[in-house]
Amino acid sequence: MLKKRGSGVLLHISSMPSPYAVGVFDQNVKHFIDVIADMGFTYWQVLPFNPLDGANSPYCSPSAFAGNYLFIDPKGLCDMGLVSESDVKDNIYTDSPYTADYEFAAQKRLSLLKKAFLNIDENLAKEIKNFEINNPWLTDYSVFMAVKELEGMKPWWQWSKNHARYYDCIKDIYSYEESAAFWKFVQYIFSKQWSEIKKYANNKGIAVIGDMPIYVAMDSVDVWSNLPMFLIDEKTLKPQKVAGVPPDYFSSDGQLWGNPIYNWSAMEKDGFSWWISRLENALKIYDTVRIDHFRAFASYWEVPADSTTAKVGEWVQGPKMKLFDKVFEKFPDAPIIAEDLGVFGEDVVELLRDTGFPGMKVVQFGFDPNSDSSHMPHNAVQNSINYVGTHDNNTLLGWLWEASEEERRFALDYAGFKGDNWGEGGYQSPSCRSIIETVWKSSSNVAIISLQDMCGFGSDARMNIPGVPEKNWRFRTTSQTIDNIDKDYFKKINSLYRRMYPAFD
To answer: I need a surface site. Which of 174, 413, 415, 430 has the fewest CB within 10 A?
Structure first.
């Protein structure tokens, strides 16, 4: 896997066609898999499956292990006999099919799941118990969510004294047994439904590329239950330093993420057991895993907790191969993709070389007319993943419209585009196709394109703008849009540029 020429499509579950305000694990996802398999794609890339934060981002989650209950298919619950057809109809969303409405979905799905929970029979209860035994993280997560509900959904450091301290709270675990049982049920259903989708994809020859955020949210079960593993004052329960990145391509102020920083020395003494467990869980959920902001394992940008921007900070050495030596002991051939974008130095290059993980190239970053960027397709090495654009980039057409005239001319000349209609979008956009084919020709083993760029959509279809907290993650599509993709074209370029080798041996 990842060592043969292939190609993939980037489309998150939330963006899938669905009658339920966000995409769910249903027949629409299977239809999407059918379509990309028919075009000769061998990979499907998704964003993190973790529960969302208050801005609907999957990159700052309350759990590094749990799944997002919004993706649970209401009809699937009905098919199990846990809810009625009228309950399912109550989850149907009647507004725009092109925009995800997380607030509507959260309210409806949680209410539906609580109804379903009341109808568990003895056999299902046994299955959930077995699921819990095989997923040790589930106990802490279920207690965390039960107590969070009890505490009015406040962040854990604002909980009452007997709850805020993990070891005090967990002593009284039986007090939360019924509420915690609900959250165990939710995760069981999530896993059951996703396993069916993944099996379907694999049987069609499609491998799933998952995404792992490097950091977790301060208000997470991971921090609450593993306080010594983070740089947090155990008396005040406040972070000493927080994560971010310095000024870069996306933001002149840098990006102040605010996630707590890992206490790497404490983790090393523990044999990096939390990371090993996290990777083990991810490799059960996905076929291969992209680790977001991988460069932080080499060195990371540490910002004082009281800073208002990420401009003020310093680079601090990460665990480097100390961590990955342990990873390789457990997973000798771990199929991991390193997201190595942004500002980095020789330490990141060295870590990539030592791990052997493929890094990433993004063609939009390469179109600097005054440099010979490593992101230009002619500089790509085989052991890399080449992107037309990631979830953080503008769409390809949107980039062409917003680029400077010099950048746009360079990009179009580089891609061999002829003609004056560079601004034409749509399924047969000639300018987009010229750049897509340039990526497909590259030496990179794997090439990835977002569904938006397959359709020639403009910047209004962009998934995320880094550093901007509002109105992100809302792109959704329809079955009609997926069916209108020029299947013959993508089948042709996958064949022409030899990107149809199977992901699985």
So the answer is: 174
Whether 339 is a known active-site residue: answer yes
Sheet-wide strand order for 314-317? 255-260, 241-245, 299-304, 314-317
The dihedrals phi and psi of 338, each to the nearest 5 degrees, come to: -95, 115
Find the angle CA(9)-CA(11)-CA(12) to the nearest 5 degrees: 145
Q: Write out the DSSP string of 431-485.
A: HHHHHHHHHHHSS-SEEEEEHHHHTT--GGG----TT--SS-S-B---HHHHHHS
Would you list the DSSP string of 213-224?
-SS--SSSHHHH
Nearest of 53, 132, 64 to residue 289 by alpha carbon: 64
Neighbour tally for 318: CB within 10 Å: 20
Q: Which residues pair with 449 in a beta bridge?
A: 9
Two tokens at 149? 């509900």
Q: Among residues 140, 292, 302, 453, which one is catalytic?
A: 292
Dump pLDDT digits (tens) for 438-461. 999 999 999 999 999 999 999 999
Calpha distance 191→131 (Å, rounded): 9
Digit-coded pLDDT (tens) for 211-243: 999 999 999 999 999 999 999 998 999 998 999
* pLDDT over 80 at 356, yes or no: yes
Contacts of residue 427, Cβ cutoff 8 Å, sequence gap at least 6: 454, 455, 456, 484, 485, 486
The residue length of the chain stands at 505
> Which residue among the candidates 211, 222, 287, 339 is catalytic per the annotation?
339
C-alpha to C-alpha distance for 300 and 303, rounded to whole angstroms: 10
Q: How far apart are CA 290 and CA 57, in angstroms?
A: 17
Q: Which of 211, 222, 392, 453 is catalytic?
A: 392
User: Is 340 one of the catalytic residues?
Assistant: no
- State the sign of the Cα–Cα–Cα–Cα dihedral 31, 34, 37, 39: negative
Distance between CA atoms of residues 300 and 316, nearest Å: 5
Q: Does 333 qualify as catalytic in the annotation?
A: no
Q: Which one-letter amino acid corresponds to residue 307? A: S
* Nearest Cα to Cα of residue 190 among 246, 135, 151: 135
- Per the DSSP assignment, residues forming a β-bridge with 304 are 241
